[in-house]
């Protein structure tokens, strides 16, 4: 399902009118933690392959790692994100915004460690060798506007910004300019792009 004007965030931190695939890979945010950061990621499973169930299975802890040689590198990993935006614009939510999804790993932003504590993670179905789709940019812009209205978000960054040297996503084909333009139409949350 693509993002629509009917989309709302409920009191439990779940979006209405999107696919929900609750992940066990989350926990409570620390007491007093506010959502101040959005981290943009990119993922494809297996690498360079789009459209299958593998990302959802991975985030939900049910990926059969025997089905592809690459999946052997994922054994034992417990990872999730709040949202996935598929190539066709479908939004899947794995974790309530009220909870801490395990998307950032070892991370630091502006001197603050453990970015999962104060961020939301948005995965785009994609990789560092392919451009993202127009539909993904459109949906991402709408999702960012909605999240900005609900939470005191100060910045939008890439995974590479909070885990330099360890992560490189969303990669060189992510067009930050398109998000900057979309942000200027809203209330102007700063977008950090190094």
Looking at CATH, the homologous superfamily is Peptidoglycan recognition protein-like
Strand line-up in the sheet with most strands = 1-5-4-9-3-10
Order of helices and strands: EEEHEEEEEEHEHH
Count of the separate structural domains: 1
Class of secondary structure makeup = alpha/beta
Based on the structure given, which CATH architecture is correct? 3-Layer(aba) Sandwich
What proportion strand?
15-25%
Distance between the termini: 33 Å
**How is the biggest beta sheet arranged?**
6 strands, mixed
Q: Rg, please?
A: 15 Å
Spans where pLDDT lies below 50 across 5 or more residues: none
Mean pLDDT: 92
Helix content: 10-25%
What is the CATH C-level name? Answer: Alpha Beta
Number of helical segments? 4
Care to describe what's here?
The protein has one domain: Lysozyme-like (3-Layer(aba) Sandwich). The strands form three sheets. The protein has a six-stranded mixed beta sheet with strand order 1-5-4-9-3-10. A hairpin with a 5-residue loop joins strand 4 and strand 5. It is of the alpha/beta class and 194 residues long. Helix 2 crosses helix 4.
In short:
By secondary structure, the protein is of the alpha/beta class.
What labels describe this entry?
194 residues, alpha/beta, Lysozyme-like, six-stranded mixed β-sheet, two-stranded antiparallel sheet, 4 helices, 19% helix, globular
């Amino acid at each position: 399902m693509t993002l629509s004007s009917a989309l709302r965030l409920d009191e439990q931190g779940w979006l209405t009118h999107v696919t929900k695939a609750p992940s066990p890979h989350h926990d409570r945010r620390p007491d007093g933690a506010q959502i101040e950061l959005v981290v943009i990621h990119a993922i494809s499973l297996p690498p360079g392959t789009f459209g299958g169930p593998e990302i959802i299975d991975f985030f939900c802890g049910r990926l059969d790692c025997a089905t592809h040689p690459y999946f052997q590198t994922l054994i034992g990993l417990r990872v999730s994100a709040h949202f996935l935006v598929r190539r066709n614009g479908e939004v899947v939510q794995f974790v309530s915004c009220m909870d801490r999804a395990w998307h950032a790993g070892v991370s630091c932003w502006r001197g603050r460690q453990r970015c999962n504590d104060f961020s939301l993670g948005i995965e785009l179905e994609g990789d560092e060798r392919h451009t993202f789709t127009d539909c993904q940019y459109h949906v991402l812009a709408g999702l960012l506007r909605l999240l900005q209205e609900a939470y005191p978000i100060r910045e939008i960054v890439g995974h590479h910004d909070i885990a330099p040297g360890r992560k490189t996503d969303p990669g060189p084909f992510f067009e930050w300019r398109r998000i900057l333009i979309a942000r200027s139409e809203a209330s102007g949350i700063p977008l950090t792009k190094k």
